[in-house]
Structure formats: structure tokens, C-alpha cells
Amino acid sequence: MIFSPNANPIRFELIAETLRRAVAEVPAYSELRAPRESSDNDEILHILRTFPIAGKEDLRKDLSSFVSTSYHPETLREVFTGGSSGVPLRLLRDRSEFRLENSFVERAWAPFGLEATDQIVVLRARADPRSEDGIKYIDKKGVAWVSAFNLEEAAMDRILNNIIALKPALIRGFGSLVSRLFAHASKVGRTLPALKGVAYSSDEMAPHERAFIRNELGIKLISLYGQAERAAMAASDTTSDLHSCFEDYGFIELLRSDGSMIDEPDEQGEIVSTSLFKRATAMIRYRTGDISSWATIGSHAQSRQLNGIDGRSGAILTDRDGRPFAFSWDMKDSILKHLPIDVCVQFVQSRRGEITVKLDCGKRPDVNRVLENLEAIREKFDIRFEWNATLHTAPNGKRQLFVVSK
User: Fold this and answer.
1) Is 205 exposed, middle or buried (0-12, 13-18, 19+ CB in 10 A)?
2) Do residues 199 and 226 touch, judged by C-beta distance below 8 A?
3) DSSP 389
4) 145 with 122: CB under 8 angstroms?
5) Which residues fall within 8 angstroms of residue 280, CB to CB, at 6 or more apart?
């Protein structure tokens, strides 16, 4: 059972400390009960679940009630989320939070063996106003921010040439951008000899894309899960797609659509998380909007594990009987694993019981096996195909595998 109060990885003392701090300092929680110093693990979990679940709309409606009174307002920095699910969310953050965030991200990079002088390149899906050449910007820490919003052939050549010249040891960015970069590099026969690893985040990378980078190109690849709200963090290692939760960063719960909690493996639910560090804007039982499921782990595991990130709660499909339907991790893998590296796919629903499968290529024999694997869901959906399609991207540049049109 994933949520056993006796599970070694869960940091109950940090959960208790966070709840006590929230009741003492955060107006939204001032009338709730906090755990005692003597509370056992069962009681801590019980008290946590008496705290209301908060979402973007709650913070947007009354942000001040979620801001800790222990900070002076003038010392806080205003930040915004990327807005992939709609309107960006405004938050207040203390400077110390950024330093702590960086320390956890660096922990995720540990398998790469990076050194202090190694060059890091971050791919952006937007133009950077700080760039003088329209492609890259080097910040004061030496990190190179490369704009990769134009993915046409000629633009990719320029982007790749700039990255090669930088001799990066680490490349990070949205999964879709990372995949497109390495597919193009392979196509034109270019390599990055100084590269020690690649970290992707924010949008999904299909199994064939991950396998291509790891197995065909021989590059160490990890997935880093987090949010602009900094409610939770998890990361895969270089050989597995399971995401180990950073239990001292945030406490993750999985929520069913009826509000009940998922304690067992392999059932999909929405990630709800509580930040376990001191911060200006409290994130307690915050709805991230991301869908995942628990993986089965051994009793001596250092953290609980998620079966990857399965998409957004707002992109749950509806079958012809009006029931919600989400592709399991295994189902997605079986459909996508045969997709050629130069082909992207997207599942779009604009009407109940119907799915349009969009592919950004013309009809070709090497995608037939992908289409055959869709037979398993034909009893639930009418499926049509759109070839040479323009795939939808969110306002912040993320490519979404599942899109539900309102």
C-alpha cells in the first residue's frame, strides 16, 4: 500500500511542521487544527486531510489569504506561472525559495556528474527579448538560454549550430523541444561531444523519442517533474521512466474525480501536493492539474514513485457513453512506441466519443503499426485521422499529447 503511515520515505515530521506553520502564519488556515509535537504518523495524515484542497482559482480569487504573515510584503517577488492551462497564476515568492529550488534541481542532475564550469543550455519555446542575435542569451551565471520557438528546417539548423558552438554539458527544456532538437541533429549528422546529459520537463516525450535519445544516440536522459507553483518535484533516473518523488520537497497525494484519495498502485488520479519548505505563498494540498498513478515500490525504497506524468486533468477524454477516459501509461506506450522519430502525434477531442488523431506527416507505411494499436479503443471512440496536420501548442509553447477543445 503506497500510503501506509509506516512507509519509510514519507517525511511526516516535515508535513507536521508545515501544517503548524500554516495555521500560525497563513490567514486561510488560521482556524484549522495543527498536529501536536507528539502526533503520530496516522494523526498527521488525518489532520492534513482536514485541510481544504486548493486550486488555481482559489489563489487567483484571494491570494493575500494564502501569503504568510511572517514576510514583509516589500521583500517578496511577484512571479507568474506559464499559463499552459489558461490564464497565468500570480504568486509571491521569497528570494530564499529560488536558492532552495535550484538545490533540488541540481540533485536531479546528479547522475550526469556535472562540474561547476560545465556549460548549461536551456531551450525556450519563446523568443527572448534579452537576446541580441534572436537565438541565445547568456545570463550572469553563464547559462545559455536558446530560443527554439521556430522549428522549421532552416531555423533548426541555426539553433543547432549555436548550441554546438556553446559545447554544452547539459541541455534542458520542454520534452517536445528536446526531442525535435536531437531528431534534427541525427538527421543532419551532427553531434555534441561534450554533452553529459539531457533533462526534459513540462510536456511529454513519447516512448519512441526517449528510446531514440537513450539507445540510438547513447545520451543520458532524465525527466524532471515540477510546476511553476513549486508544489511538488519528482525525477526519473537515466534508465527508467518511473519518477521518484522528492519527499523532503513536497508531499504528493493522488485524487480521484470524486475527491477521494488513491492509495494503491496503477490507478490514475490528479496530483495534489503540499510544499514542505518555508515559503511566502502557502501550497497546501494544491491541485496541480497533472495526472499520474503510483508505481509499486519495495519496502526499502528511498521515495515513492510515480508512473510518469500522464497528462492534464483538463484533457481527460470522454467516450461515446459520456464516461471519462484516460490513456494509461502502458496504453500510451503500446500506441506510440512504433512511431518514427521524425513524426509527432496528437489526440484531439472536440465532441464526445470522437477523437481526431493528428500526425504532422503524410501517409506513410512506417506509421501503420501505430494506427493498428488504436484498435483497442475503437469500441469507445470513433477515430479519424488528419495527415500533415499542424499540432496544437499551449500559449507557453508546450506540445500537448491530448487536447480537449471546448
Assistant:
1) buried
2) no
3) P
4) yes
5) 67, 68, 71, 76, 92, 93, 94, 97
Say if residues 117 and 346 touch (Cβ distance below 8 Å): no
Letter string b/e over residues 367-388, b meaning 16 or more CB atoms within 10 A of that residue's CB: beebeebbeebeebbeeeeeee
Q: Do 298 and 278 form a contact (C-beta atoms < 8 A)?
A: no
Q: Which of 208, 149, 164, 200 is nearest to 183 (CA)?
A: 208
Residue 29: Cβ-neighbour burial (10 angstroms; 0-12, 13-18, 19+): buried
CA 17 and chain centroid, separation: 26
- Residue count (the chain): 406
pTM for the full predicted model: 0.82
Sign of CA dihedral 375, 377, 378, 382: negative
pLDDT at residue 104 greater than cutoff 60: yes
Residue 172 has pLDDT above 90, yes or no: yes
C-beta neighbour count of 286 within 10 angstroms: 26
Torsion angle (degrees, nearest 10) of CA 330, 335, 340, 342? -90
Largest CA distance in the chain: 65
Helix (H) or strand (E) holding 176: helix 175-187
| Cell digits of residue 194 | 561534450
Q: What is the mean pLDDT of residues 14-34?
A: 97
Q: What is the pLDDT of residue 329?
A: 64
What's the CA gap between 243 and 20, in Å, rounded?
29
Chain position carrying cell 519512441: 208
- Residue 68 reports pLDDT greater than 60: yes
Closest CA to 317 of 286, 285, 357: 357
In angstroms, the CA 395 to CA 296 distance is 35
User: Other CB atoms closer than 10 Å to residue 96's CB: what's the count?
Assistant: 12
